[in-house]
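Please study the protein below:
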Amino acid sequence: MNPLLTALGIPNAVQEFFDIDELVFSYGEHFEHYDMGFHRVPTTKNLWIAGSAVTREVIITSTAMEAIAYLAVNLNSYPNLQSLSFIAIGNLPHPGQLNWIKTHFPKRKFTLVFGKDLLGRLADIRVAAGLFYKPVRLLRSEVQIQILCGEQVYGFDQDTISLNSFEKATGIRTGVRTAKSKQFDTYLDQLKHYAKP
């Protein structure tokens, strides 16, 4: 078991599921690095993938560490870990990543685990729409987010935009679920807050 993950409160079952030795995660030609005091996340067209290829649920995150933290916090909700796949996309969702996910995981249940901040909520929209062949373009002004979807432009307040508000405005129903930490921006932030010194 990894001592840093153990100090964060990551159960042994989660560490075994992800088969973690070092906290360096390969996205093909790029790597995510995690250690005390830093977390380097790549911006890449590649993916980090863990879990079963034959799965019912695919959980998409921005980082491998967020995937680990999410499962640690929600372990009781998943009695059969072999029914899960985790995919980390890095700092920025890329259309090629979403096309690959759609092709390799058809007819799966998707759960998006991005932060509660504005960038996380925009990632929810971009990934969910991209998984269902509705690519979007995001534009930000001083007070509003504009989303170009097809030929239509939709405006949203920065403080209230969410995947749900996007779906209601556009009439698109992706069926994609989002999961957010209740008290913190991310599940990793939650674990770091409660970590053993």
About this structure: Residues 6 and 172 are 41 Å apart (CA to CA). The mean pLDDT is 94.
